[in-house]
Specification:
Chain lengths: 468, 342, 384
């Protein structure tokens, strides 16, 4: 389980050479440096020899040798997204139960791939370790490293922000384990910053733009003037770019796009300029707490009662989180947005998942819970089909994998960028909720064909798989 | 012009909040000399007084309806607040007014909390190093915060203002502008007036009562007042309680503007220290003035015109002002010599 | 009876320190901390806190913005990897230098004030750095995502020396030795020992005496006609360079630099580490850093399953009760434990953990020999 960087490379000739630059570097080392390396290697061995031998014949990082295989669930447990993280963890626990054949099996019953038999993966029971990302890149990476270096995790999954997802994805690439992204919506995760070892089930801002624009057109017309308030970080810009791209293509004008500091709390100084700007739509490219505050305050400023240019003023929240939207209370009613999944969906997969989650915990799962549950299942299934946990093999099994029955209709893991392509839900804040979980209603399921884009559009380079 | 006026209003409103938080902090920090990192937590606890009252008022009777099932197959729950059962429409009104009503429970609760904190913990730290005060109050803030999180979760909890104040006031019309040119939400206007009233009461209390006189004397020279046979310690306990009440009230009334969550205290902590120091240590008026000054300048810095001139100025304006003020005036705007300079 | 003089005691301290660093993987394994990443963090934050202590512990100037220097060090290191070479030596040197320069500029301004005014000035500069790095400076810092390596980075020096490019992302090396895993830890450990030794020498030097004099009474120092500013500025820059070095090491063991490293909470963390361990003591800051990082990484990882296993010897009813109570303090509740720990330590051990260690030392010594001679010595050690 413990592992010894370069030392291991020298001691064990058997390392699979996926990271070829390392080996080329090695050959360049002259003799004196080699001597130094040897001494340091000996120190290393002296300290961790017994641990190294357990891993001596591993073909890849953290190859499971016993009767179990370890997953690493890296979710926010403190900070603003702690509740979302808790929901992800609930879903993971459920997924592990279902993979190991406990409980009612959930979406395994509806999943189109029947490789998993409810007896673990490749004959090994799944066990898991957990950690706190704190929604900070450093903390998330430290936590993932602990799982990899100390607990021997074969796969890392989870998270509730794009910055963290990209940071942990980079780490997993370096370490040679698979990363199954949790809730991350920025284009960059499977665009500019994509990595071979990383996979995303969640949708992105590009898909949100493509799915939301037609609905906005049908409801608000093509002659609209939009004002954007954008959270000043990568996800916010990504979101603003996508919405502008698609709304401007159908004839909307963008009068102003203002960046707001993350965690501003009081947004009044950004909202009042909207009042007399001539805009008749306000787009809030905010998520989480920022979204709750900016939306609540925009409604307090009477924006929704205004008529501008002879049209009713409207507010749009491109990315919804039901957990967070509840924090905005009445303010969300009638406001359009998009979501990856919603528990009110009526397909067999969604119903099976809501049933097993609801019975276990007494309330319906969030979209964060759904995407992480799917990710755990998809990873397990790929390992079973590949017959191994080796990242390059598992990755090959996921690439181009077409499946159904996980709540989003027919879905494909595109080989070129490791992004899932599936239908996107356009939702609206519900006018007459029947319970505190009943915040959103699905107004349209935008078919997959409409949100697809060429992989080259977002740039980036997967690079080769790393098996550690 | 109307945009300008609106930003002045925003600034005053923000300034009201900053001034209220800083006022409590400066009572403890600028005058008792305790670096209280738990002050943000007091603000947060105040807002959770409102949350608690709301959840008490909306305690629900749960009846299972076996006819209808939830999506996961258990009987649907029909929930009615007890208070509506008992009082009908009056019950609904009580729920609607839960935020203003929370002031009534926040005052005794915060006073009690403040007194307990001072008696149980802070008073043993008057003579300790500032570093120790930081560590102990920061620890306390985390503990308080985590207790709230375990009870109420991490997500923000909406606290709507009474329906009566939901709309906006057309201030422009009163000042001779066109209709709808300058509208401002009623609740924010109320918050501004409320902060004015609280600030005035605190000043009146310290200025015009014997108690206040002794406290002010104690701030200036604690030892001499002690030698006069006056029990200054007991009075300082009450000052701490007062600071907690002011912070708590600021929190209660702010909830309709900012849905409270367990972490909000930490978000305001740094800012409140900056306000107090810019105002000057040991000066109550300074804290209030600095609160409004920073609020207004922050609003102006966020205007598109300013921001396009100096990108990112709205993100740093508060700290920039702090630097400029402290470099020009060594003790902040109205600071007294010798307070917390070592 | 061997009477130790200060010099001998320092040697013993240093040797002990080296032994602990060398054997850390074995020593910390039983408490679950014996893996490379956490030990790297112990070393890196140890360096950060040692440097902070040179400023705060000696001069009494409480900086609330030291994380900015750590951030500058990290960004410099990653840019060195991107532009020059994956070898860590240039990155280490440049990150220390840049942080030192940054500290010189900021120190020159903020040291015009003392006490709380100084603290707020440092805080303001650090928060400005953080906010700008997060937003406007994104071309340099890559904003929220953090600065990362890319396949097409220039890496000029590597090109000159003919290091061939692989297909994947390169990793940081010390002349071919990878800087992740155990070799990364030992690299950090060696740097930690060197920095600890330097701090020890500063504490014992006339310069260190001068700084302590500033702390005890700056006015008196000024009345003697001595300008204290150059001394405090030197201490500020040195501690800024320590922070930059720590930031550089963070990027070396894990080539990523994020803005949140500069946030006030990160500055606050090093303050807490130092006070928790014992302000002004040599060893205290390192211990404080270790304790806080241990809680963050290990306590947060205990979930219900682990607790159930741990208490499986209890009868089932009791097991559930115990698990639900302890569950409040670990896993997602690890913050609560940390907060409570801060309070308990500062209430009962005003000198931080080092005072606790000194007290234990006293008790054992008194226990071993009937005559209490060593008290004053232990006190001296505690107040170092």
């Amino acid at each position: 389980m413990h592992y010894c960087g370069a030392n291991r490379e020298i001691l064990l000739g058997s390392r699979i050479q996926f990271n070829s630059e390392d080996s080329q570097l090695m050959s360049k080392i002259d003799n004196s440096k080699r001597k130094f390396l040897k001494t340091s290697a000996i120190i290393g061995v002296g300290v961790s020899a017994p641990l190294i031998f357990t891993n001596a014949h591993a073909a890849y990082r953290n190859e499971p040798k016993g009767s179990t295989v370890t997953f690493g669930f890296n979710v926010p447990q403190t900070g603003a997204y702690a509740d979302e993280g808790a929901d992800e963890l609930r879903a993971y626990e459920l997924a592990v139960q279902h993979i190991n054949g406990e409980g009612d099996g959930g979406m395994l019953n509806t999943f189109s791939s029947k490789a998993l038999k409810g007896n673990g993966i490749n004959g090994k029971k799944v066990v898991y370790v957990t950690g706190d990302t704190q929604t900070k890149s450093d903390a998330a990476r430290a936590s993932a490293k602990r799982m990899i270096e100390k607990d021997g995790a074969i796969m890392i999954t989870g998270g509730s922000s794009s910055g963290v997802a990209i940071a942990v994805q980079g780490l997993c690439q370096e370490a040679g384990v698979i990363f199954m992204a949790g809730l991350t919506h920025s284009n960059d995760t499977t665009g500019k910053d994509k990595r071979a070892n990383g996979f995303r089930h969640f949708f992105n801002t590009e898909m949100t733009g493509a799915a939301l624009a037609p609905v906005l057109k049908n409801n608000y017309g093509t002659d609209r003037v939009a004002y954007h308030l954008t959270a000043d970080y990568t996800w916010g810009w990504s979101q603003e770019g996508s919405i502008r791209k698609y709304t401007e293509a159908m004839g909307w004008k963008t009068v102003q796009a203002v960046k707001t500091p993350v965690g501003a709390g009081d947004f009044s100084q950004y909202i009042t300029p909207v009042l007399n700007s001539g805009a008749d739509v306000l787009v809030l490219n905010h998520y989480g707490k920022d979204m709750v505050n900016s939306l609540t305050q925009a409604v307090q400023f009477g924006l929704r009662e205004k008529t501008v240019n002879g049209k009713q003023f409207e507010i749009v929240v491109p990315l919804y989180s039901r957990l967070m939207a509840a924090g905005a209370g009445e303010a969300v009613k009638g406001i359009f947005g998009s979501t990856n999944w919603h528990w009110s969906l009526q397909d067999a997969g969604s119903q099976a998942f809501v049933k097993s989650f609801g019975q276990a915990y007494g309330f319906p799962p969030s979209q964060a819970a759904h995407t992480t549950y799917c990710q755990a299942l998809l990873y397990a299934d790929a390992c079973q089909r590949a017959g191994t946990f080796m990242p390059s093999q598992v990755g090959k099994a996921l690439e181009g994998f077409k499946f159904d029955g996980l709540g989003n209709g027919p879905t494909e893991y595109r080989a070129e960028d490791h992004q899932c392509f599936k239908d996107v839900l356009v939702v609206k804040g519900k006018e007459n909720p029947t319970s505190k979980f009943d915040v959103l209603e699905v107004v349209e399921v935008t078919p997959r064909a409409q949100v697809e884009y060429p992989a080259s559009m977002l740039g980036g380079n997967l690079g080769p798989y790393n098996n550690g | 012009m109307d945009a300008f006026l609106l930003q002045v209003l925003n600034g005053l409103d923000k300034g009201g909040a900053y001034a209220l938080i800083a006022l409590g902090l400066t009572l403890v920090f600028g005058t008792l000399g305790v670096v209280n990192f738990a002050h943000g937590a007091l603000f947060m606890l105040g807002s959770f007084c409102a949350v608690t009252l709301q959840s008490l008022l909306t305690l629900e009777r749960v009846v299972l309806d076996p006819e209808r099932l939830t999506a996961w197959g258990t009987p649907m729950e029909i929930r009615t607040p007890y208070i509506v059962d008992w009082f009908g429409d009056f019950g609904m009104t009580l729920i609607d007014w839960s935020v203003p009503l929370a002031i009534l429970i926040a005052i005794p609760i915060m006073l009690l909390l403040g007194v307990i904190m001072e008696r149980g913990l802070i008073r043993h730290f008057y003579k300790r190093l500032h570093a120790d005060q930081i560590l102990v109050t920061f620890g306390l803030a985390i503990v308080l915060q985590e207790i709230v999180k375990s009870q109420f979760g991490a997500n923000p909890i909406p606290q709507p203002a009474p329906a009566m104040f939901a709309g906006s006031a057309d201030i422009g019309l009163m000042l001779g502008f066109a209709e709808n040119a300058v509208v401002y939400p009623w609740w924010r206007i109320i918050y501004l007036m409320f902060s004015g009233v609280v600030i005035a009461s605190v000043f009146a209390f310290l200025q015009f009562t014997t108690f206040g006189m002794v406290v002010r004397a104690g701030m200036a020279d604690r030892e001499t007042v002690g030698l006069l046979g006056i029990d200054i310690d007991r009075r300082f306990t009450i000052v701490f309680g007062l600071a907690a009440v002011v912070a708590g009230l600021a929190g209660v009334m702010y909830t309709p503007i900012l849905s409270p969550d367990y972490h909000m205290g930490m978000d305001f902590l740094v800012l409140s220290f900056v306000v107090v120091v810019v105002g000057g240590m040991g000066s109550l008026g300074g804290a209030v003035a600095a609160g409004f000054l920073l609020g207004i300048l922050q609003s102006f810095a966020s205007m598109n015109e300013v921001n396009s001139l100096i990108p990112g100025i709205d993100q740093v304006v508060i700290y920039l002002i702090a630097v400029v003020v402290l470099l020009i005036r060594p003790r902040g705007l109205f600071g007294r010599e010798g307070v917390m300079e070592n | 009876m061997i009477k130790f003089n200060v010099k001998n005691k320092d040697h013993i301290l240093l040797i002990g320190f080296i032994i602990v660093v060398a054997l850390a993987p074995v020593i910390f394994a039983p408490i679950g901390a014996g893996y490379p990443d956490l030990l790297q963090k112990f070393a890196i934050f140890g360096i950060f806190a040692i440097g902070f202590n040179i400023l705060f512990g000696l001069t009494g100037y409480l900086s609330f913005g030291h994380a900015a220097f750590l951030g500058v060090g990290s960004y410099t290191a990653v840019w060195t990897f991107k532009l020059l070479t994956m070898n860590v030596i240039p990155a280490l040197i440049l990150s220390t230098l840049f942080a030192g320069l940054f500290a010189l500029v900021i120190g020159f301004i903020v040291l015009r004030r003392s006490g709380i005014y100084f603290s707020i000035l440092t805080l303001a500069f650090a928060q400005m750095s953080y906010n700008l790095a997060y937003s406007v400076l994104t071309p340099i810092t890559n904003g929220e995502t953090g600065l990362q390596l890319a396949l097409h980075d220039a890496r000029v020096l590597d090109g000159v020396f003919g290091v061939t490019r692989g297909e994947g992302l390169p990793s940081t090396t010390l002349f071919g030795m990878a800087m992740s895993g155990w070799s990364g830890y030992y690299f950090c450990g060696v740097v930690l020992i060197i920095m600890f030794y330097i701090s020890l020498r500063i504490f014992r030097s006339p310069f260190g005496m001068m700084l302590r004099a500033v702390k005890s009474n700056q006015n008196r120092m000024s009345y003697t006609g001595l300008n204290t500013r150059p001394y405090t500025l030197a201490a500020f820059v040195i501690s800024g360079m320590y922070a930059g070095l720590a930031g550089g090491l963070m990027a070396i063991t894990d080539p990523l630099a994020g803005a949140e490293r500069m946030q006030w909470t990160a500055s606050g963390e090093v303050v807490l580490m130092t006070i928790l361990g014992g302000t002004g003591t040599l060893l205290g800051p390192v211990i404080g850093a270790g304790v806080i990082k241990y809680f963050e990484n290990i306590f947060s990882s205990f979930n219900e399953g682990i607790l159930m296993d741990a208490f499986s010897f209890l009868p089932e009813m009791l097991q559930h009760a115990v698990v639900s109570i302890t569950g409040l303090f670990v896993g997602e509740g690890w913050h609560l434990t940390l907060g409570a720990l801060f309070m308990v330590i500062v209430i009962f051990l005003p000198g931080g953990l080092m005072e606790g260690i000194a007290r234990i030392g006293n008790v054992t010594r008194r226990w071993l020999k009937p005559k209490p001679v060593a008290t004053t010595e232990a006190d001296a050690a505690a107040s170092e």
